[in-house]
Every structure is written in structure tokens, then in C-alpha cells.
Amino acid sequence: MRYRYLFEQMVRRELRQKYKGSWLGVVWYVVNPLVLMGAYALMFGVLLDAVQIEDYPLFLIVGLIVWVFFSQSLLAAATSLLEQASLVGKVRFPRETVPASVVAVQLVTFLVLLVLVVPVTIAVRGTLEPELLLLVPLVACLSAFTLGLALVVSVLHAYYRDVQPILAAALLPWFFLTPIFFRVQDLPGLEGRGWAEALLRWGNPVAPFVESVRDVVYSGALPDGAALLYVAVASAVALLGGWWLFRRLQAELAVVL
Amino acid sequence: MSAATLRSGEILLEDATRSFSVRADRGTTLKELVLRRGGRDAPPVRALDGVSLHVRPGETVGIVGRNGAGKSSTLRVLAGIVPLHAGRVEVGGRIVSLLELAAGFGREFSGRENVELNGALHGLGREEVAARMDDVLAFSELGEFVDAPVKTYSAGMLLRLGFSIAAHLDADVLLLDEVLAVGDEGFQRKCLRRISQRIAAGATLVLVSHDPGAIERVCERVVVLDGGRKVFDGPVSDGLLAYHRLIGTEHGGGESVRSGPTAVADVELLDESGRTRQVFRPGEPLRVALRLGPGAPARLDLEVRDETGRPVFRTTTEPASETLVFEVERLALLGGDYDLVAGDRVVRFSVADEPGGEGVVDLRGTWRAAAPETALPGSAAPGGGR
Fold first, then answer.
1. If you average pLDDT over residues B80-109, what whole number do you get?
2. Which residues contact B210 (CB under 8 A, 6 or more apart)?
3. Is the confidence at residue A227, as pLDDT, over 70?
4. The model scores a pTM over 0.80
5. Could you say which residues from 69 to 98 on chain B have a Cβ atom under 8 Å away from some Cβ of chain A?
6. Interface predicted TM-score of the whole assembly (ipTM), two decimals
7. One-character DSSP codes across B42-108
8. Is A92 within 8 Å of B20 when comparing Cβ atoms?
């Protein structure tokens, strides 16, 4: 852990750049998902009247903060090595710290949002269930999963400069196919199409994360066992695979950047 | 790789080979990868082609060569930033590299915070950085600027900070790329003193520079690279000569500064004992030894120019033989870099800085106390003072 101090320094540097050193900067990143929540709640819950979900804004915000953490981490990580090109080209240090510090900064925002949202959901439900403790391993798994993919997109974008734009384009449809503003089992179009439901549930690796976190935070219930297993395996595979790919490709980083 | 077999400060480069692909636009895209599979790029350029080098602890090595000779690639390979395609590189101990001014600096951060960041980049922990902080800041002579963001710094201030950090990381191997050229003389001297302390303790210095003066001041050994190959490795005076020959051959017998009437085959600057030198002290004797090539020279110009290219001295002769010597009893030049232009050839030399005068010419005057009438004999007449 010779480079733990470096990681701290890099996170500080990122935080400084992102929030411009003020708590007002953090507030903006908290407000952003709240605005999204308001817009979707108004659109789907009120105007279209398409969902019959209790406390729909709360349902929305839990999924949204998971998604925002995931997607913003990947987008920021993709360009992170390029932004630190002079550093990578002139100094020898473990390059993983660059995308990792970007994810860590997003994690700070995510945790701030969780700290704001969780008490509200408890207050609205009126009960405090022990299942909430599951949030800790779930957040750990989500972080590992996101970090693994962040390592992949950051090193790939250094080699192939269209990775970030492709990712940005893919994230929007990905968002709509992720059960953030709906429950998979509620979708009327899926009736009689079991394969499509399975695809929505298991084909999208983010879906089990969103559903598990929502089960714990919004419903105060134990998530589906299969989903928990999926979360554990997906995070391990993403982290190890991402690490492996990054290690393999990082040697040439100073040359390709 | 068994780095454990190397002593700290030791460098081993064996048959090091590294190519780079040359592309006008940097970075490919996935789209290209899919669309033009098997498409051929321009053949890669060999930046290093079988370079072997063994540096023992306590050695100071200068790397010279033309642009693209592989100097910076060698440093980046030694620093572990760029991997080799073939061969072996091993470096013993802690490597500290200063390859670019402010490479690891956050522009929004203060000097103090950048010391922390750079210490961390070189693998130091919080306590190790904290223990060095005061020394680093004192060495940098930045005063109250240490708490200002480095984006407000001048190039000289960035160098001071960057070098102060590098000098206090307890390097076993110190890799420097040209950076010293930016600082002022006083700070440069201070840096050199600090470096020599480390070297006396068994550290190794590898310096890349275009400035033969800097190499001669700092290094005892010179490696000349050309086209990615090592063409010379040996003592500094011979090495710089080899380098100048190399530059000479590039232009077909000398850097053609003008189409002079004389073809000069060889120019050397010698000291009183007949050794070739690049650096002289003011007031020293100096001999310019010339060998003329074929082509029946009728007239030969010898000229000395200062750093700005301005001629400070010129003489012409009609050569009586193939070999000529221009004898200078005492060098009347002051500290700086000069070009000696003999016919169509240029040799660069430096004159060391010494206290006692500034400018270009050493008037060789001395100060003494004197009575008013002897000091200003024409003081009654207007304008007689000068």
C-alpha cells in the first residue's frame, strides 16, 4: 500500500477540480438527480399516469442515484487518462490511480445522496428494517463493479478515441432499459414474453444492482437471492476483468496518449 | 527480471530496442479497427536500436545526440514509463525523473500542495513528505509564493519547485531532461552542488542536454546516440568531440554557415597541455587547431560569435600549410556559450563564469584606490572622464 497516499492526493485533486473547492459545488451534484427525479415523477407519475407505485418520487430517486453514480463514473473515467496525459507520459506511478480517483470522487457524491435519501425513506415507511444493513455490501459491490468497468473504458479510450462518445451514446438507451422508473414485473408489454423479461432483468448488468439497492432502501425488504448472487458475481468479474485488461494495456499508455 | 541483483544506483540496459509507429494523427478509433482490419500503417521508427549501457553507482552520464537520436526515449525507458520491445532494462533503487517542467503539477494547487502530490507520485507516504516539506520549500527559495497556486508561477519558479522536490526524494538514480537550462545561474549552481552530494553518496545521474557546457560541467561520461544506436561511450571530452564530429558530418563537413572559400576538415579547441576541451576559464591560454581539406584554400576566416550570433571577433589569414594553429595567449572572453566559426565549420565552446566581470569581453582591468588627481587627470575638462 505504498501508493495509498498518492490515491488520497489524486482524489483531493479531482475533488478540487470537480467541486472547485466549495461545498456549493457538491450541492450542484446533489441537486441534479433531484431535478431528474422531479421531471420523471411529473411525466410518468402525473401527466402520463403510467405507474401505480407508492411514493413514486422516492422509488425514482433510489434508482436514479445508482444510475447517476454508475454512468457519471464511466463517463468521467473514460477521458481521465487522456486528461492526465502529461503525468502519465512523464512520471512513473500506478496508472490505476487515475480512473480509480475519478470513481472515488463520484462515490463521494453517491454517498452524500444516500445519506440524504435513506432517512427520508425510513421516515416515509415509518419502520426501520435490519435489511438496511445489506446496503453496505451492496454499495461495496456496486463500487467494485463500477471501478472494474471504469478501468476498462479508461484504458480503451486511451487507445481508441471513440470509446467515450460511443459510451455516451449508449448510456441514454441503456438508462431507459434499466428498471429505474419502472418495475420489470409491472411492464404490460412483457406479458407472455418471458424471454424479454429475463433479458431486461439479467441481460443488463446494472438492473440487479438497481433492484437490489431499491429493495433495501425503498422497500426495506430482502432482495431476491438470485439478484444478490448476480450482484456479487458481476462485481467480482468486472473488477478482476477490468484489472486484468488494464494491467495488460497500461504499459503502452505513455506511448498512445 | 531480478532487480535484486543490481546495487542501488546501478543501471543496466541490454540490447534495448524500442520502435514507435509514426502517424500524423495520434490515437486510432474503434471504427478504424473494424473497418480497415489488416490495413498497413507506415513502418515503425526505431527510437532505440540495440543500445547497451552499464552505469555503476556514483557515475554521472550525459546523453547527447541530434533530435530524434533516442535521447529522450532512453530516459523514458530508464524511468520505466515506456517499455522495451526487445532487450532488458534494470535500474537499482529509487528512480526520480524530472523529464518535464511541472509534469506532475496541479495548476490550481499551491506550491506546498504540489510538493505533497509529487512526493506521493514518487511513492512517498504522508509522513515522508511531511518530513521533507520544510527543506524542499527552503531550497526552492520561493518565499511566500509557496502558498500561491502554481498557475501564477514563471517557468523559472516551476523549475525551482520541480527541482527542489526531485532533489529531496533521496534518488538513487536521477534522470534529468534538459530541465536545468531554465533556471538562473545561482540556482543552477545550487542544484549542481545538491546533485554532487547525492552522487558522492552513491547515486547515479543521467542527464540529457543539447548544451555541451552543461554536460561538461556535470558529467564525467558521455554517451552519444545517433539514429537510436550508441555511437560513442566514454570520457566527456572525447564524447563531446565525437558529438561535434557527428553534427559536422550531418552537414557534409561542417554546419554550413556561409559558402566560404575554404573547406575546413577539422577544428579543435585545445588547452595549454594540448587536450581538447569544450569549456575554458576566462584568461586561460587557448589554441585553435585547424586542418584544411582538399580544395586549395586561398583565404580563411576565423570568427567568434556570442550566444546571440553576434560576431565578437574576426580574423583572416592566407593559409600557408594544410594544418594551422591560431594561438590565443589568454582568452579575453567572459562566461557564456560561444561559437567558433572557421571557414565553413562551427565549434561551440563555453567559457566558465567567474566573478570579476560581466559581459562578453574580459578587459583584464584591476581596481585600486587612488588619489583624485591620478584617478581623473582631466577632471577640469568637460567630458574628460570617459
1. 86
2. B64, B178
3. yes
4. no
5. 76, 79-83, 95, 97
6. 0.82
7. PPPEEEEEEEEEEE-TT-EEEEEESTTSSHHHHHHHHTTSS--SEEEEEE-S-EEEE-STTTT--TT
8. no
